Amino acid sequence: MITSFLIKSLDRTIVVAVAILLALAVIVPALNLLTAPEHLLHVPTYLVSLFGKYLTYALLALALDLVWGFCGILSLGHAAFFALGGYAMGMYLMRQIGARGSYGNPLLPDFMVFLDWKELPWFWYGFDMFWFAALMVVLVPGLLAFVFGWFAFRSRVNGVYLSIITQAMTYALLLAFFRNDMGFGGNNGLTDFKDILGFNVQADGTRAALFAASALALAGSLVVTSGIVRSKFGKVLVALRDAESRTRFLGYRVEHMKLFAFTVSAMMAGVAGALYVPQVGIINPGEFAPANSIEVVIWTAVGGRGTLIGPIVGAILVNGGKSIFTAAFPEFWLFALGGLFVLVTLFLPKGVVGTAQNYLATRRASHAAARKESESEKSASLAAAETMAAE
Amino acid sequence: MYRIIQTALAALFLFVAMAPGLRAEEALRDLVNALGEAKLSEMDEHIATLAKTGKPEVVAILEALGEGELYASKADGQVFLTKESGSNLTLTDPISGDSAGEAPKAALSKIRVNNSVRRAVRTALGSLTLLSPDRNQRLRAARSVLQSPDADALGAIENALAAEKDAAVRAVLEQARATMLLLSDRPVDEKREAVRLLEENGGREALPILSGALGSADESLKPDIEAALASIEQAQAFWNAGQNIWYGLSLGSVLLLAAIGLAITFGVMGIINMAHGEMVMLGAYTTFLVQDVVRTSFPHLFDWSLAIALPLAFLVTGAVGLAMERGVIRFLYGRPLETLLATWGISLILQQTVRTIFGPTNREVGNPSWMSGAFELGGLAITWNRLWIIVFALAVFAALLFLLKKTPMGLQMRAVTQNRRMASSMGIRTPLVDALTFALGSGIAGIAGVALSQIDNVSPNLGQGYIIDSFMVVVFGGVGNLWGTLVGAFSLGILNKFLEPYAGAVLGKILVLVLIILFIQKRPRGLFALKGRAVEA
From residue A112, how far is each of A103, A120, A196, B498 by CA, in Å? Predict the structure, then answer.
């Protein structure tokens, strides 16, 4: 069954994309670690981390595309799942610091000592073990999405209403995580990480490994999403995106299907967040900001929603542009971003990849039509010749 | 000759008229000089005599005595008010208040005081200022006595009370008397009367007095005091609830102002305008610009600056809204999610534009005089700007309701939003109506910005703080219904303020958001849902 799922999921574009990602996962770390710094092909560590960050963004955009592009749910709260995954990873990294913090407390992270807390809050238990943290990275966003989605889809909150309450959700979490009493470091968040799985997070090797992990996670998620989308379930998802009432009247449990897609998507976002945090070295409540969630939407829109490659391309394009822009003309980045929102929605509703695919498809179709036409002409002339010969 | 006689007569007349004054001054000087020669044990008596004269000069003298700044000259026994300046003392004549030069410390001797003298001074001072002819000074004195009640001053208070005519001062004095009675060793009946009086108009200040008296009180008095305490606490709870409601109404009016334009663009037209908050922000910046011009060029018009800013803000934001609708939104009708994204983009551009022009820091917008200050209503403290904003929000709401329900333009708006094709067939120019409706909603956001500039920081991020809240209000109240927005705004405001004392400001806000999310589960279309065909449209 799994093999059939895999085989179905792999069409040509996906195979190519996965192959590229796997190649990147090997080549970039190799170029970083094995070549000398002055070598022509050397990739400096900061670039490895930067591209690793882009890949986690791409994973987040892919997660959003699963619900927005294929299920019609425009979530304006996906950054919340991303940040929750990030916090889970951050908590593991905080526990790894141990007695090396500036207060030297073997059990409590620095900010708790600073707040004069005497013992570890219960929700920090277990985060000293990587497997537990890794489980939480997926479970916490998944659970939130499940509960939230269960309430929302059951009472048929959809369209812009859903968008607005997802935005309210991430806003509420933003406010909550800013509180010192929450036990997540308040305003400053979690930072000053030392080790991950015993390796120094600052080391080149760890950075390269994190990059490879991000690329692998993205490739894996791509295969899974593609499998979901190409299965019969995925076809019904698209149907409910385009005509929800009709799908419901045909006998499908629309809300269950939406809930499944939403939860899976949130888990993917959590993984993305968990890979993001060790590469940037900090997680703070700012990640919950509603603006972040909306930015994810624009990555997906630029790349092309409803295509699986699109969000990946979009995330890398927009963030690459952001890095260049904010360095060169910091004033104009928001103008550019704002303009991008307007122009893409007005002129490029299918995004870069979607438009390109459309263009290719129409060209292929017109080629095929032309070939057919010439063939039919040929057969017509043959027939004419035959009749002439018969006469 | 005649002239000379006239002048002489006038001089004589003047002298006769002034003579009693001079004589009184001399008498007072003798009394004051007596202080310098008196023994400590006689001081009380001297102070009382001085106080009895009731002269305003005595206040300064007694104060100086209490502070140890009253010195007697060793040479002639003259008493002076002094201030230290190096090793010398600057002297002031105690009666006339004129400067009397400087003298070395050795030439003077300090009039000694002990605790009993200080107490006598305090009592005398209290009764003196309580008897002052100036009403405000009496009121101040009565308040200060009330704040630090002392059973010894009871007599002075009762004297003052007997002479007092002014109702406000009397009320404070009565309260002070009651407080002192409780501390004194008067009979129980009088104390019971005092407890009753404190209960009636004591308020918050009476609580510690009564609970303090509870410990030392007579057994027969205890039930009275306990009852009084309970009743005051109840009254306090009542006023606290009132204050919370007031704060809630105030927050609600802010929410209403921010959301009311959205109720038009989102509620009536179904356009998700994420740049709505930026319209509010533009309105606030318009106010800033108007005030800037008024301050530099027409300072006397400052109180009118808001009135000038209102129509301008409406025009500016209305024009921006019109441009948005014609330039972007009209291509996206029927695609709400795309509209959301495009307007978000516009909001980023507007924010950055304002940041580039005006800088990222807060701009100062002043309150006109009629909006500053506060007054008290019962136990409520009410600030004028909050009151005016509530009034203004309701006025805007009423005007909008009138426009939608009673004018041809409103009729056309409603027709287009209910059934576009039918309205179009009836000859309504639907694109024009769309544009004007959107401009109206944006213009109202601008007006809201004028009001909000009075209570919020005017910065490029001003709008961001309101956008989620105002969407919550519209969604909670029910889309497409102005009354829903009104009820939604005020109930969210009041709910927020009632949760705050228990949960804190941030947690209260989170709770409200969670409650709204849960509420939408129950009523997905808000409090006042539209019924019929419009629902699925």
Answer: 10, 8, 21, 31
- The answer to whether A344 faces chain B, any CB pair under 8 Å, is yes
Reading the block at residue B412, the tokens are 């056309």
Q: Do A151 and B522 touch (CB under 8 A)?
A: no
Contact flag B517-A338 (C-beta cutoff 8 Å): no
Q: What is the DSSP string of A232-243?
A: HHHHHHHHHHH-
* Whole-complex ipTM: 0.83
| Cβ contact A159–B337 (<8 Å) | yes
What end-to-end distance do the CA atoms of chain B give, in Å?
A: 110
Domain locations in chain A?
Answer: 2-349
Angle at B164 between CA B160 and CA B166, to 5 degrees: 140
**Mean pLDDT of the B362-382 span:** 79
* Residue ranges of chain A whose pLDDT lies below 50: none
Q: Which residue has the tokens 């029910």?
A: B478
B345–A161 CB contact, under 8 Å: no
- Exposed (0-12), middle (13-18) or buried (19+): which is B451, by Cβ within 10 Å? buried
Non-local (6+) Cβ contacts of A7 within 8 A are: none
DSSP classification of residue B39: -
Tens of pLDDT along B39-66? 777 777 777 777 767 676 777 777 777 7
Distance CA B39, CA B116 (A): 13
- How far are the Cα atoms of A91, A114, A174, A284, B346 from residue A185, in angstroms, in the given order? 10, 10, 13, 8, 34
Closest Cβ–Cβ partner in A161, A171, A294 for B344: A294
Distance from CA of B511 to the nearest CA of A (A): 8
B82 forms beta bridges with B91
Question: Are A263 and A145 in contact, with CB atoms under 8 Å apart?
Answer: yes
User: What pLDDT, in 10s, does the model give residues B459-499?
Assistant: 888 888 888 888 888 888 877 778 888 998 999 888 888 88
pLDDT of amino acid A276 = 95
Give CA–CA dist B304/B368, Å, rounded: 8
Interface test with A, best of B337, B352, B496 (most A CBs within 10 A): B337
Residues from chain A contacting residue B349 (CB–CB below 8 Å): 334-335, 338-339, 342
- Cα–Cα distance, B134 to A55 (Å, whole number): 79
Question: Which residue among A165, A172, A337 places its CB closest to the CB of B520?
Answer: A165
CB-based contacts of B432, cutoff 8 Å, min separation 6:
none
What spatial distance separates the first Cα and last Cα of chain A, rounded to whole Å?
Answer: 62
* Burial letters B275-308, b for 16+ CB under 10 A, else e: bbbbbbbbbbbbbbbbbeebeeeeeeeeeebbeb
Burial of B25 (0-12, 13-18, 19+ CB in 10 A): middle
Report CA-CA distances (Å) from A173 to A115, A317, A337, B36.
Answer: 21, 29, 25, 74
